[in-house]
Amino acid sequence: MSRREGVEITVKVTQEGKIQQKDGVLAMKKYEFTEKTRIVQNGCEETKLHRIRAVNTFGNVKAGDIGGWIESEECLSHDGDAWVYGDAIVSGKACICDNAQVYGNAWVYGKARVCDEARVYDEAQVYGEAWIYDEARVYGKAWIYGDTWIRENAQVCGKARICDEARILGEAWVCDDAIVSGKACICENAQVCGNAWVYGNARVFDEARICDEARVYGKAWIYDEVQVCGKARIYGEASVNGKAWICDKARIRSTENVLTVGPIGSRNDFATFYSGEKEILVKCGCFCGSISEFLEKVRETHGNGRHALVYQAVAETACRQIIPQDMRETRP
Question: What is the pLDDT of residue 27?
């Protein structure tokens, strides 16, 4: 069934080895079961799988080629160039269709769908009601499950976990041990990597990057060229954009907790001031620390010169706008 078109095709295999579709159209089978079978354990259940063999030439598959393992013919469409290679497995009510490919030691099961030009390979697992389509790629040891969509040219790899109703699309890339869950959406050219976690209704898009042990959740939006790293936390209805660089132990729950100014200074760089647990933090060039440490560094480097005056003026503005987390929680 195609989620985008809402059309379900029911097929029936005739005695002549053709496929009887719901509308009565006949099409040739493109594969058959070999005599080889195997049993795999999926939770408490055992599943019998059949090794497949191509009976026709299609795509880059030649007649006689041995394919992977499927539980039933519902798992691999006879239409298009879709194929299961090597030791890959497709079981349950999962379906590989169109020109999609599953190979390596990948496993697609449950009610998952892999279609269009999508690829699932290596030791990746796709299950639940997850959909992988367009030209998306899932590989490494990634797990995709729940009601997740991975689409367009998105890539998920490493040991990443995408679950619940998360959406990964565009040219987005989720890798390493990153997690995207809830109803979070990662799109365009955004990246989530390291041990980062994006969840809730959060949105990360444009060229934004979330890495290390950062957390983005709630209804937060991160976009443009923002970098979020370290053990930063961005949540609530915060919207962080521009060239902001958030790191250390940032605690940002609203847009007013961040101030990005630039280009300024001798390097024409951007300075980002943001709320921490106990004080205002600063990221400017290679400097990352508290606002008091930043001002001391400015005095050491620029004395009372023009650049020092500009940095001091911006820092004063940041102090008027940004309130550290502890002060917000105790303020009447």
Answer: 59
Helix, strand, or coil (residue 306): helix
In a domain, 89, yes or no: yes
- Asked if 105 contacts 87 with a C-beta cutoff of 8 angstroms, the reply is yes
Residues 58, 81 contacting (CB under 8 angstroms) = yes
Task: State phi, psi for 273 to the nearest 5 degrees.
Answer: -110, 135
Give pTM, 2 decimals. Answer: 0.87
Phi/psi for 310 (5° steps) reads -65, -50
Beta bridge partners of 131: 113, 149
Q: In the chain, how many domains are there?
A: 1
Range of the domain at 39: 1-115
Residue 93, exposed/middle/buried by CB under 10 A (0-12, 13-18, 19+)?
A: middle
Low-confidence ranges of the chain (pLDDT < 70): 1-27, 324-332
79 assigned to some structural domain: yes
